[in-house]
Structure formats: C-alpha cells, structure tokens
Amino acid sequence: MKTAKLLAATAFVAASGLTVSQAQADELTLCWAAWDPANALVELSKEFEAQSGHTMKFEFVPWPNFADRMLNELNSGGKLCDLLIGDSQWIGGGAENGHYVKLNEFFDKEGISMDDFAPATVYAYSTWPKGTPNYYALPAMGDANGWFYRKDWFAKPEIQEAFKSEHGRDLAPPKTQMELLEIAKFFQEREIDGQKRYGAAIFTERGSEGITMGATSAMYPFGFKYENTPGKYDMEGAVNSADAVAGLEFYKELYKTSTPPGYTDSYMEQSLDAFKSGQVAMAMNWFAFFPGLYADPDVGGDKIGFFVNPGQLKEASTLGGQGISVVAYSDKQDAALEYIKWFAQPSVQKKWWDLGGYSCHVSVLNDPNFADSAPFAADFLLAMDGVMDFWQEPAYAELLLAMQKRLHDYVVADQGTAKEALDKLIEDWTEVFEDEGKL
Amino acid sequence: MSDTPIDRVAKATPPSVAAKIRGLSDRAIAWLFVLPTIFLLLAVNIFPLIWTINLSFTNFRANRPNREVDYIGLRNYERILTDEDIWLTMQATAHFLFWTIFFQVLIGFTLAWLINRKFKGNDLWTTLIVLPMMLSPAVVGNFWTFLYQPQIGLFNYGISFLTGIDPSSFQMIGDVSLAPWSIVIVDTWMWTPFVMLICLAGLRSIPDYIYEAAEIDRASQWRQFWTITVPMVLPFLMLAVLFRGIENFKMFDLVVQLTGGGPGSVTELTSINLKREAFEKWRTGYSSAYAIILFVTVFGLASIYVKALNKVKER
Fold first, then answer.
1. Residues in B lying within 8 Å of A, measured between beta carbons
2. ipTM of the complex model
3. Cα–Cα dist A420/A410, whole Å
4. What's the topology of domain B75-314?
5. Is residue A8 pLDDT above 70, yes or no?
6. Which residues of B touch A197 (CB under 8 A)?
7. How remote is the C-alpha of A432 from its chain's centroid?
8. pLDDT at res. A15
9. pLDDT at residue B107 in the model
10. pLDDT tens string A215-254
C-alpha cells in the first residue's frame, strides 16, 4: 500500500512538474522586418531560449510589405505576433488603438529605467503622446539614414586631380548637402576602371515610404519642420517654408542630375544593389545595413567609407529604427515581457551591438571604445544626435501616403513646383487632422 | 419486370416523408432548389453591397473600431467628385482602357484573320500567340520591368537597334509621358491573344457557302470582307470589347507590379487608388463611396453597351 501511495505521489509530482514546465515554456513569435539586423536578433535570442526555456519563432516580412502586413495584423486584433518590433511611426496608433501593451508598470516593477537608453530613441520609439512618460515600447534598434561611398574611387589620384581642378578643393566625404551634390554630379557618367559610373543612389520609391525618407534627409538639414509649434499642427510656414522648398528643390536636383538611369522607384534594396554592382560612387541607406556592407567581399573593407547625412543650415538625419512592443492581443504576454526584461540588460545590449544590431542603451553608446568599435560607429552617434522623425500620429499611414504622392509627383514626375507640392501637402494633412478632430 | 432505381427509391422513402413531398407543388420544389443559391447570392453579393452603401454615408474607419461612427450624408461623394486627383486617376484609367482596347481589337482581329487562313504550322502559331495570356499578371509585370530597364532592358535595346537612339536615354516606366504607354504595351501584349481567340471563333462560325455565293456574284475580296466578315464577326468583337473593358477597368496586379502607379501618379488607375484609400489609408467610409461611384459607372456603361450589343445581334 505504501508503495502504491509512493508511486501515486511520484506520478502526481511528475505530472505537476510537467504541467508547470509546459505552462512556463511558451513559444513566442517575434515579428519584424526581414533584413540584416533580424538575422542578428535570431542569433541573439538563442541566449534567451537557453535561459528561459521559451522557444522563439520569428515572422520577418520584407520591408515593402512590412507596414501593410503588420498594421493589418494589429487592426484585425490578430494573435500572430507576441512581440512586435514596429516602426517608430506606429507608436501613436499602437497606443491609441490599444494594439500595444503599456509598459510603465512593468518597467517600474522590473527596475527598467528609460534613463538607461539614449533620450532621442526613448522619445522616438517608446513614448506616446510624444515626450510624455508613457511607454509602449523599449528602444530596440537605433537607426538613421546615412551614407556610404567608394573610398577606393575617392582615393584614386586621377579622380582627386580631376575633382580639384573642377572644384578647387580635395575630394572628401561631403560636409554639407551642397558638397554632396557637387560630388555626386562629379561622378555622374564618369568612366572609372573602364565603366560608366553614376553619382548617387537615393530613395525614390513611391509605394511605401521610400521617397519620404529620402527627401526628408535633404529637407531636414535645409530647415523643413512639420509644425511651427510642436503639438499644435500649425503647418503653414513650417512645411512650406522657403527653406523647406529649397530642400525639396535640392533633392529633385540630386535626383535629376546624379542618379543612374531608370532610378524612379528605388528604396533600400535598389540602393544596396546599385552600390554593390559598382554603379554609384555614393548611396544613402539605413545604418542597419552598414555592418553587412562593410563585410561585403566585393565593395566592403578598404573600398567602403561611411559618412553621416550632411548638414546644410543645420545637422539632421532622418530617423529609422524601432522599439519592441508587446502586442495586446497576445495570449503570452508574460513570456513576452520576460523577453523584454532580458533584452533590456546591458550585457545583452552589448552583445546585440557586437552581432550587428544597433543598441540604444547608454552603457553601449557611452562606452569610450564605442566610436572606434566599427568604421561607422562614430557617424551613428553623430546621426542619433540630430535625428528627426515623420509624424507618429495614429493617422500616420494617411499622412505618409499623402507625402509620398506629393513628393513623387514633384521629384520624379515633374509635376508643379516644390512650393505647390508642399502647399498641397498641407491641404492633405489638414484634411487628415480635421478628420481626426485635431484641427 | 424488375423495378427501376427510381421505383426503388420511391419504395424506400418513408411514407410520411413521401407524403410531405407529394404535398408540395412543383413551384415549391423549384424554390427548394433555388433557395440555397439565392441565400448565397444575398450573403456574398447583395448584403455586402447594401452594407457598402450604408458605410459610404459614414466616416467609418476599419482600423479604428473603437471610434464613434458618424453619418455624414453625401460628404464622401462630394469630396470624391470634387477631388482633382481622383479625376486624374479617372483620366489615367480612361487612357488605359481606350488604347488597350483599341490595340487589342486591331491586332487581335488581324491575327485572327491571318490565323484563319489555312497554312502549314497554323496550330503551332496559334499556341505560340496565346502563350502570354496563360502567364500570371504578376509575373508579366515583373518580367516587363526588366525588359523596360534602361541599362539592361531588351525593350530599350530593341528600340535602340531600330532607331539608333541610346537605350539608356529613355525610361519607359520612369518617364511621365512614356509610362502610360508602357502599361498599354504590356496589357496589349498579354491580352491580344484573348481577343484573337474570340474573333477566331467568330470567323470560323461564318459558313463557307456565304463566301462561295459572294464569289459567284463576283464580289471582290475587299467587298466580301466589309459586307460579310466584319458584320458577322462584329457581335463577337463587341463581346471581346465588353470583357476587356470590364477587366481593364478593374486592372490592378499588372500595373502595380510594373509601375506601382508611378511615376508620381500618372499610371495610378482607379483600382490602385481605391486600394490605397481603403486598405492603406483605411478611409473605409470614403472608399465605400468611391467603390459605389465606380460600380454605378461600370454598371451604367456596361448596360448601355449590352443593349447596343443585342441590337447588333438582332440585325
């Protein structure tokens, strides 16, 4: 009888143990865009799996479809993603529509301080309403639009000589937007190593966010702003100021005079292709791609150099990057929060940077060795000091599509003037804000 | 004499059920058979249509389920009909519709007329000609973006070979004036075989004795063509125009793959524009009104056209 009781007790304990371990070990799905840093995150997450017993599944969507796919998922209350590394502009919609879990209580409980992350990234990736201490994401991947160039071409004596005789100065990475244009024009259709090359690969894509991200990289340094007073939606004189118009005209000139033929609908992939195939001397793209480019056997290493988006009237870069959020519709929120707690640790953040992710943690960024840890690290710090982002309103998609249309109509399709394009953009945005009840 | 299967089923049917069925009139039995179809039609066609009409008078957004929905009367319709950009997409659609149908009818009829002659390899040529319409529009769109590529595209090299101009000096899908033609060319390449097949069916339905009678009457080939061939193929041709018109009015996949509606918005057809409003901007009420306007337009035009087609058939 004793044996029977012992067996029964053992079976009960074993069964209970099994139940507990099954309840604790969840399969978490993390959704993000399909790009280089996502592969680094898969590698990084193995440590989390080993420590927590949870298994990680990843849903990576190519960039052109990322917003469509994920926003549809959120809007339909889908349970596909437990964790979402969503674009910075989604934070308003994520918060107001109840898609993201508010993290304040969790941060307080777990001792996660937002002071441990770069202020610009906390502002951009985590807060809604902007700048308030209401957190819906943990800064996960710092990013900005930067530039890379063919260092080996720049160093060629005949190129140096030709540039100096044309412009009276040494050929070097540009410090201003006007210098960038000069250099891009200089390389346009120039023969190097027996092949015709072009000036620069820039963003002109119409369908998602490409041309907006590209053009604002020129317009911000020229003085483009969304509002005169933050939070007031007073766009007249900010969006269409003389400086903003000059910035947009500049971008059109860059497009017309310095890009390869047929470069009418190009974004990240096309920029990388143009550079890797040796078509262009310079290219804009997100810092996220720089580790991969530096490691490229054909155009990386000594052949590539990097520079921050040049200033003009001021220093500014278009913000990229994302925060990581817990999806409100997930049934595994506890495990998802566990992942965020693990991810916020300084040691994990250090490893994240080492693997090719861009940490936003101050312990990584303020490390005295950080600037020398990669050829683009110092430029990344500079860029993050002056980042500007698109509207992060719940109606961000409408606002973005309007800007895509107006910019593409003007820059690529030659319709109207820059002033008219920006005036029409204000009309579009005003209509959206009126519908939203904000004007 | 052994029972037929029907007799066996009748005997096997329980008397109570049999009585019930016997009690039904023919009309009632007919309704029994038709009702599931009617129900399906109501569920998947009529109800969504009525729901869309209802939504078109609201400011509803599908991505904001928690927001209060207001009835705003005809404001969505007014906005759409006074929106300059929407009229531009209508113009782009009209340009696409007119020229694709024009070229497809012209080339399709010519090809059918040629194929209808009896010559060696006739079947092989027919198969080769119809190949493009067997491809997926997404594949065709992607494929042609490479053909149109200014630096490596075969199309540009072909034009360069024929005219001597530099292949990278023009951009079919990047140039505002050429882009609308680039989509016309691809659609024509893909769907001319469809028109050809319909015309071929028409041509082959003309009895030989009519031509023989015309020959006896010493009618010239030209006269036979205009007085026999064209009138007898016309109903088929009009049917092809109707099919292509409806298809091209809702054209989406091919053009999205090819130009994405660009450059700017010059190839943004109404279906692309509507998709952006409905599923990217999530203006559900507004896009419902937009869809209703398009529905009424297509329905109205198609009704007029079908009446004309019937008149031609009656002649």
1. 59, 62-64, 66, 85, 148-151, 168-169, 171, 173-174, 176, 259-266, 276, 279-283
2. 0.78
3. 9
4. MetI-like fold (1.10.3720)
5. no
6. none
7. 25
8. 44
9. 97
10. 999 999 999 999 999 889 999 999 999 999 999 999 999 9
- What is chain A's length? 439
- Each residue of A273-287: pLDDT tens digit? 999 999 999 999 999
Give the distance from residue B149's alpha carbon to the nearest chain A alpha carbon, in angstroms. 7
> Domain residues of chain B, as ranges?
5-55, 75-314
Edge to edge, what strands does the sheet with A322-326 contain? A55-61, A27-33, A83-87, A322-326, A138-141
Count of all residues that appear for chain B in the document: 315
Residues 6 or more apart whose Cβ sits within 8 Å of residue A199: A183, A184, A185, A186, A187, A188, A254, A257, A258, A259, A280, A281, A282
Q: Please, is A29 exposed, middle or buried when counting C-beta atoms within 10 Å of its C-beta (0-12, 13-18, 19+)?
A: buried
Predicted pLDDT of residue A243: 97
Mean pLDDT of A330-355: 96
Q: Which residues of B touch A405 (CB under 8 A)?
A: 85, 264-265
Token pair recorded at residue B271: 């279906």
| A138 Cβ contact list (under 8 Å, min separation 6) | A103, A112, A117, A125, A126, A323, A324, A325, A340, A343, A344
**Long-range contacts, stretch A43-51, CB < 8 angstroms, 24+ apart:** A43/A355, A44/A348, A44/A351, A44/A352, A44/A355, A44/A357, A45/A339, A47/A342, A47/A348, A47/A351, A48/A339, A48/A342, A48/A343, A51/A342
Q: Do A401 and B281 touch (CB under 8 A)?
A: yes
Q: What is the pLDDT of residue A142?
A: 94
CA A59 to each of CA A33, A38, A83, A84, A344: distance values in angstroms, whole numbers, following the listed order: 8, 10, 10, 9, 21
Whole-angstrom distance, CA of residue A406 vs CA of residue A202: 17
Distance from CA of A235 to the nearest CA of B (A): 21
Query: What is the predicted pLDDT for the residue at A281?
Result: 98
Domains and CATH numbers, chain A: 27-143+320-388 (3.40.190.10), 145-318+395-435 (3.40.190.10)
Instruction: Identify the band that residue B17 occupies on the pLDDT scale cut at 50, 70 and 90.
Output: low
Please, which pLDDT band fits residue A359 given cuts at 50, 70 and 90? very high
